[in-house]
Amino acid sequence: MYTCSNKTGWSQTFVPDCVPEDPNALKTQIVRYCAVSSIENSHHAPITDIMWLPDHVEINRMGVPQENKGFESCQIFTCATDNCILVWDTRPTKGPQQQQQGAKPKDKDGTKNPIGVPDTFKHLDLTWKPMLKVHLHKSEPGGDHAPTKFSIAEKQGDRGALSKATDGGVPDKEASVTGGYFHSGKPESGREKRTLQTVKTHFFVGTEDGEVVYVDWMPQKDQDTGKIQTPKPDFYHTMHDGPIMTVQRSPFFMDILLVVGGWNFTIWKEAVVSGPILQSAPNPICMTSGFWSPSRPGVFYISKVDGSVDVWDLLDKTHEPSITQSVSPSAITKIYPHAVSHKQHLLAVGDSSGTLHILEIPWSLRLPAPNEVTGVANYFEREVKRRGFVVQRWDFREHEKRELEAEAKKKAGIAPNVLLTDEEIEYRLKLEYQAEGNFLRELGITKEEEPLPQT
């Protein structure tokens, strides 16, 4: 085993071919599944993203976030390109019939199962159904959104929402939003689960068409049909020219998201609905993945199909990457930085040929600068103000354009569109009725004048 380094400070570890002493040392261990979901109730397209819900929160069948008293993750979010996101629960649906954790399975004759598959989730096998379905409708005709990646606001380990929970029931705000579908009365008993009001039910979704969608997973009552269904997205913008490959929140700012897809990346702030606060210029090489630095708030990594990794430092440059490191001759499919210790950070890079590369991150990219968190936060705040100024200028230019069009029509002698009052509309209808009656009398269809309708 040896290590080489280059001028940028990166180092890569190589393992030469050798014959192991134990012939079974390099055999791949097989992990067998414990349960399979019901085919009829599963996704109808390949699953593109999956995530466990944090262990301090769970959601009921109506999407209301509640306290998880067991503090064990028991629900899973999955998304696929079949236009929906499903929520699965690993617990049995009724009765304490759950098998003992870690019980050793046996065959019918009582002998030990040689495969060694535990029956922990035996109650789910081939009968597992999602408890909640989030369908991504579009606001206009032309198909629905096909999700590829998603990100929720709640974070594993952050249990601040528990201190602001309410005892039982559902908040009045949620009850009013759902059109009275929920009841926000007193808890039925002391065992009622507490509702977590501060947990955001809105989340970001990246789609196959390069759209960034912001939608609420809590179903609402449709005013037209009266059905309980997923509401329309609060907003969505098409900012990428390819499928979204990464939707990840910053570990330092939970309302800041990095989105990578196609030939560019964008950075979003959750409170800004008009668009991203930062959008990169189109890159000549397609991007495949992205990841925030675990130790520096202004640094993130972008992988590309030419086998290189771009390192972006927002405090250094925002128009181009600070460093571009060539890693593999094949396209990179996934990257993952990890802090082994305070003095050693590694970057795992996987490529399309099935090779895993481990790179050591130099000290300049792992040690944060003094007050870097404050500096990056100020930068994001300036970008939010800049975005607001851009939207204001758009509105001003649109208003100015309408005034110029009206002035041009006036000079050309074209009367502008005027809104008539009810009396003027009624007078015009009477004139049209009289003209029609005169025409019918001229044709001999009617011989005497019919009275006008009384109003």
TrEMBL record:
Coiled coil: none annotated. Keywords: Cytoplasm, Repeat, WD repeat. Residues 138-147 have a biased composition (Basic and acidic residues). PANTHER family: DYNEIN AXONEMAL INTERMEDIATE CHAIN 3, DYNEIN INTERMEDIATE CHAIN. GO terms for cellular component: inner dynein arm. GO terms for biological process: cilium movement involved in cell motility; inner dynein arm assembly. It comes from the Eukaryota. Residues 94-103 have a biased composition (Low complexity). This is WD repeat-containing protein 63. The keyword Cytoplasm applies.
